[in-house]
Amino acid sequence: SVTAAGLVFTRLISIEDDYRIAVRDQFHNPGGQPALLPAGRLSLGAMRDDRADALGLDILPATGGKGVLNWAKQIPGLFKKQADGNRVPRRLEHAVKEPIDWLAVKNKFFVQILVPDPGAAGFSVLAERALAEGEAQDPARAPKSAQLRALSASADLAPQTLDAGAAAAQS
Fold this sequence. Notes:
This protein is mainly β and 171 residues long. The protein has one helix and 14 strands; from the N terminus they run βββββββαβββββββ. The longest helix is centred in the middle third of the chain and has 7 residues. It is elongated, with a radius of gyration of 19 Å. The model has no long low-confidence stretch (mean pLDDT 88).
């Protein structure tokens, strides 16, 4: 297909060993002028669980020689930072503008791993907390802290310019 910017877009989806799904997007600029490939986002589906310690998010930073970072314990604090007075929001989205090599969303039994190639310019956390008892009927009963109920994440891809006749791939 052809994008609004005139880029030719091709997507190849394949099933690989060990239950892996590979998605490769290719963009080609057949025009005579440079074209902008806008920023993009690759998302993982939400994991849901009512047990407080069952959900997790791990990332591998692309720089600094850091190992795998576990974000699970930081997410309830993000709810507090976005609180309106004493009430924490029901959902939040938090963007981190640090390059990563991969990210993983997991629960006690399953894991989804996203390994963008080349890496990602950053990532976003999307989280939903559990409702407190009676909160659905009276929003004033919103808790002061958050227990995770659902968690998803996305890899944020940087925009890039494609010269005339050039191609770029993301997988």
